[in-house]
Design goal:
The complex is a heterodimer of chains A (410) and B (313). Chain A has helices at 2-19, 24-50, 65-82, 84-89, 95-120, 143-170, 177-203, 216-242, 249-280, 286-292, 303-321, 323-327, 329-348, 352-356, 371-400, 402-409, and strands at residues 294-295, 298-299. With 410 residues, chain A is mostly helical. Chain A has one domain (26-403): Formate dehydrogenase/DMSO reductase fold (Up-down Bundle), CATH 1.20.1630.10. Chain B is an alpha+beta fold and 313 residues long. Chain B folds into two domains: 20-87, no CATH class; 92-313, Alpha-Beta Plaits, CATH 3.30.70. In chain B, 27% of the residues lie in helices and 15% in strands. In chain B, the strands form five sheets. In chain B, strands 10-2-12-11 form a four-stranded mixed β-sheet. In chain B, strands 1-8 form a two-stranded parallel ribbon. In chain B, strands 3-4 form a two-stranded antiparallel sheet. Chains A and B meet through α6 of A and α1, α6, α7 and β7 of B.
Chain lengths: 410, 313
């Protein structure tokens, strides 16, 4: 009974923390997210009723915006936890907090990933066919089945650790290091594996030369190491302002420096890919031509974004490489936004669409997402950000504001 | 028309064993749904529930398969207002189907495309075609990057052009089967790659993995006018499909397993299409492979298609 009461108090207590005591901006932010989610509900209802014909995907370009977002978010989820490594190596003071916020971001990203997969399925009602035992999981053959396995394990591990830390904090008990650290350590190779397996999903298909390249998985890891920390750096600065969360400037600058190396490596790998395609100049080059220019004299609708992504990547690389600009608050935050935008375009648009254009028989179908796709995607991000906002709010309340709250509770 | 040699049908496979745990789990998982449907359920609700808990084709015992076929027949018969038959004809031992297409004869008339649509109950609105006919320049030869699938001439063949119809190549090493996360598509012992439409989750990984652009997704709700439905159907072949699942050429499973030629072979006005048993050394298909200039599409991918293109003239 005691356990149930403690858990009940945890649930009601955290719910109160999430919803009470925010400032004006907090509630405005929640309202914006609520609007995103509600409008997406209508869009998804329409899609569910009429089928995926309400998207602009067709047999030629059979994956689009949804799967692009899925891929991007797997990267965010992976990199969020990888930030624990430098936090440990460089012995930043708030390593527990860095790990916790990283894990919360990972949980929310994976939730968004799974939602993007669900809205992309032709028959979401048959999701149980991929469950072990009740369904027919195609292991070891299908990479998508492996992806389902690693993503769900990763979600479970991060959810367990994060909720355990918050639960202990709520009841003012010290968390059991022997329980938490092995799981945190385990989540690090898991983080690498989720993004590697997701890369292999594309990489393994010989039908699509654009993806059938051995450096796809390393490129995924390198670019993820840019986008995930970019989000967390911005979060850390906000939290430092509005709560008792403390993180030294040096730590933030160190993350920015590491991001510069990751982006440098990402650009190098991309350059290697571009060299191979353009120098060898085989038929496989068509996908890069579609990405950066267009085919048969028609400009491609994604070329502008591809160039933007490249420009953002180079600029943010330089901003984070030069010590003066990465230590400057403004240029560093500009760098974070650019890096996030660059990787978002790279994964969301530039990875999926050119892989399908032209299609296997050389036909060109110009895909741009439909209004339904954009609206549903906005809702998925709304759910993810809402979840993240509420969880961060609760964690901050428990970690930094419990001093007198705990007394009242006692 | 020459009949394919008829071979003795193999005995039905014994029921799969060792699924009791899966069955128990499925039943447990859906006990609530069952309770919900039991209270004030309509026939449509019952059908929806039946569809939802539908087993994988290979997990059906002979009795379950019989029931399933009967209930499908009843539903399609009501839906289309005529007697619809659904069978699950098993593959024959000693048969491996192969196809050959004479590029020097094909005139690009697309009769095969529309013959296939009628025979295999493809959706008329939105239109689904299992066969894509590519138009290419004679001067250039086979170059998919300059192929046009949407040619629209008054008369064919257009001067200076040749035509290459492409459909499922029924690979011996099919990438689509490998990537399916739920085993909803597989290669039958007679070499035909089939799909269980009731098991497909619509993830479209197979469409991405197929190097031949042969697979079609039902983006909208498929529709066939009642009078145009072909009532002779197969579970893994040409029975009416649902929205949100993948379909493709099945070598006219419903015909070839009964000793008939595929519809496209039958309707081709110039005799460009040949079909037969690759294991029969005296078959026409073997003669073509051994004596003509034959090639397969995207040979370097090691998919090993059983669909051969050749120059007969």
């Amino acid at each position: 009974m005691n356990v149930i009461r403690r858990f009940g108090s945890f649930v009601t207590g955290t719910a109160r923390m999430a919803l009470v005591g925010g400032n004006r901006y907090y509630y405005a932010w929640l309202a914006v997210l609520a609007v995103c989610i509600v409008q997406a509900g209508f869009a998804f209802a329409h899609q569910f009723q009429h089928g995926l014909i309400s998207t602009n995907m067709r047999d030629s370009v059979s994956w689009g915006f949804y799967i692009g977002n899925f891929t991007f978010l797997v990267g965010v989820a992976a990199a969020a936890v990888l930030l624990v490594v430098p936090a440990y190596v460089y012995d930043w003071k708030p390593i527990k907090e860095v790990a916790l916020f990283g894990e919360l971001l990972a949980v929310c990203s994976i939730v968004m990933c799974l939602l993007f997969v669900l809205v992309d399925m032709g028959r979401p009602d048959r999701f149980w066919h991929i469950l072990p035992f009740v369904g027919h999981m195609n292991l070891p053959g299908a990479i998508m089945a492996w992806d389902a396995v690693v993503l769900n394990i990763y979600l479970a591990v991060n959810l367990i650790v994060a909720s355990y830390l918050v639960y202990c904090g709520y009841h003012g008990v010290h968390y059991n290091k022997k329980f938490v650290w092995p799981l945190v350590i385990f989540s690090i190779p898991m983080a690498i594996s989720i993004h590697t397996v997701t890369a292999f999903l594309y990489n393994g298909m010989a039908s699509r030369p654009y993806w059938n390249s051995a450096i796809l998985a390393p490129r995924f890891i390198a670019s993820a190491f840019c986008s995930g920390p970019a989000l967390l750096l911005i979060l850390f600065q906000i939290l430092r302002k509005v709560s008792a969360f403390e993180i030294k400037d040096e730590a933030i600058h160190k993350v920015a420096e590491l991001m510069a190396y990751a982006m440098g490596f990402n650009l190098f790998l991309f350059g290697a890919e571009v060299f191979k395609e353009y120098y060898s100049n085989t038929h496989h080059l068509v996908h890069y031509e579609y990405l950066f220019a267009g085919l048969h004299g028609t400009p491609s609708p994604i070329a502008l974004y591809a160039w933007m992504s490249l420009a953002f990547a180079v600029i943010s690389f330089l901003l984070f490489l030069i010590p003066k600009t990465r230590r400057n608050v403004i240029t560093m935050n500009v760098g974070c936004v650019l890096i996030y935008a660059s990787v978002y375009i790279e994964k969301g648009i530039a990875l999926i669409i050119p892989g399908f254009t032209p299609d296997q028989l050389g036909q060109v179908y110009e895909y741009v997402p439909s209004a339904t796709e954009l609206r549903v995607a906005a809702g998925v991000f709304g759910i993810g950000f809402l979840l993240f906002t509420l969880m961060v709010k609760v964690s901050v309340a428990i970690l930094f504001e419990r001093a007198h709250g705990a007394e009242a509770h006692a | 028309m020459r009949q394919l040699p008829t071979l003795p049908l193999p005995a039905p496979a014994p029921p799969a064993e060792g699924y009791s745990r899966r069955e128990a789990l499925v039943m447990g998982l859906f006990a609530l749904a069952a309770a919900a449907t039991a209270t004030g359920c309509s026939a449509a609700d019952k059908l929806a529930y039946e569809e939802f808990v539908q087993k994988h084709f290979k997990d059906l015992s002979p009795e379950e398969l019989k029931d399933r076929l009967a209930s499908m027949e009843k539903r399609y018969t009501e839906q289309y207002g005529k007697d619809v038959h659904v069978s699950a004809t098993p593959p024959q031992a000693g048969v491996l189907f192969g196809y050959a297409l004479d590029l020097s004869r094909c005139i690009g008339c697309r009769r095969c495309v529309y013959g296939c649509v009628e025979e295999n109950n493809q959706s008329r609105d939105p239109q689904t075609h299992w066969i894509t006919v590519l138009e290419m320049d004679k001067e250039e030869g086979v170059n998919l990057q300059n192929a046009n699938a949407f040619y629209d001439h008054e008369t064919v063949p257009a001067p200076g052009k040749f035509y290459m119809p492409v459909a499922c190549q029924h690979c011996e090493n099919p990438p689509c089967v490998k990537v399916c996360p739920v085993q909803a598509t597989w290669k039958e012992p007679d070499g035909i790659v089939v799909i269980d439409y009731d098991w497909c989750i619509g993830c479209r990984n197979c469409i991405a993995a197929c190097p031949y652009g042969a697979r079609r997704f039902n983006w909208g709700t498929p529709s066939i006018p009642k009078d145009e439905l072909n009532p002779n159907t197969e579970y893994l072949g040409n029975r009416p499909r649902q929205r949100g699942v993948v379909e493709k050429c099945s070598f006219c499973l419903q015909r070839v397993r009964k000793g008939l030629y595929p519809k496209c072979v039958e309707v081709c006005p110039v005799g460009a299409r040949k079909f037969g048993n690759l294991l029969d050394p005296d078959s026409e298909i073997r003669y073509i492979i051994e004596n003509k200039r034959v090639f397969i599409l995207k040979e370097e991918l090691n998919t090993q298609p059983k669909f051969f293109y050749y120059y007969g003239l």
